[in-house]
């Protein structure tokens, strides 16, 4: 979706811009790829939710095919999301153009690698973490590196080129997950580096969903780009999210924790510089200004999917310790 938003930005910046650019973007995507494949399809962002019907409508009408896996059936996508009623027509289109198959499995293969053939990627002892970093970069000195991000933005990190010519980046949880960074920044970072050393991880407080979502996004994009994350944490991996994961868990699809409220923003919304403000199509601002405790992670969909996302993040961080991680067949 970052690519789609970038294409929309380019289209709107054109002096000849007129009409709905999404239709042409969808046709362009179809011309480039007849089949689109998505792993673990989910919708948590209102900016994405409100354009999916028009985008995929153009793709499907042009003869495109979508193949996807998801933790949720179509009817549960973007559950409790802001203005979800505007998203629901996409669910109907999804059912119309795609066959839906329920595939259940009990084993998480990312967690089944055992202890053999593994390396340390999660530390609670600083001296062992520093020794691991030193081994990765040797005598090379860490220097500031500027990583270009889409739409002319930049991300500054400390980095060094290892003896194997791979880029090793060292940063802090505060810099990457407590600042106003997002998926575009993390994608650029992970594409630029092979290994990310991250200090300052800790047990999240129950009101730190903003930071949780950013960290999970970072992990997801690192996994997608086969970047390894090596963490220094004040607590073991399985305690990091212990205050976040709901105490009630889904049982046979019937029992869930009430993680959010049904919230809807009507009309034009108000001006806001908060992280909850999103501009849609360059014309309308949907804003959560005034919603009590509104944040990047609240707004329904970001909360109700958090259990799935946490489990996936823990599993992926564990797999990053496999010596075969990132190795192509």
Walk me through this protein's architecture.
This protein has 329 residues and is of the alpha/beta class. The protein folds into 2 domains: 2-97, no CATH class; 119-243 and 306-319, Rossmann fold. The protein is 34% helix and 16% strand. The chain is built from 12 helices and 10 strands. The chain has a 6-stranded mixed beta sheet, sandwiched between helices. The chain has a two-stranded parallel ribbon with strand order 1-2. A two-stranded antiparallel sheet has the order 9-10. A hairpin with a 5-residue loop joins strand 5 and strand 6. The two termini are 28 Å apart. The relative contact order is 0.13. Residues 247-303 have low confidence and may be disordered.
Give a brief rundown of this model.
It contains 12 helices and 10 strands. It has helices at 2-13, 21-32, 46-49, 52-61, 88-97, 126-137, 173-177, 183-192, 209-224, 237-240, 301-304, 306-319; strands at 35-38, 65-68, 122-123, 143-149, 153-161, 167-172, 195-201, 228-233, 278-280, 284-286. Helix 4 packs parallel to helix 5 (88-97).
Globally, the shape reads globular
**Class derived from helix and strand content:** alpha/beta
| Domain module tally | 2
Average pLDDT reading? 78
What is the CATH-assigned architecture of the largest domain?
3-Layer(aba) Sandwich
Number of helices: 12
Topology order in helix (H) and strand (E) letters: HHEHHEHEHEEEHHEHEHEEHH
Strand percentage lies at 15-25%
Give the C-level CATH assignment of the largest domain. Answer: Alpha Beta
Low-confidence stretches: 247-303
Strand order of the largest sheet: 3-8-7-6-5-4
Computed over alpha carbons, the radius of gyration is 21 Å
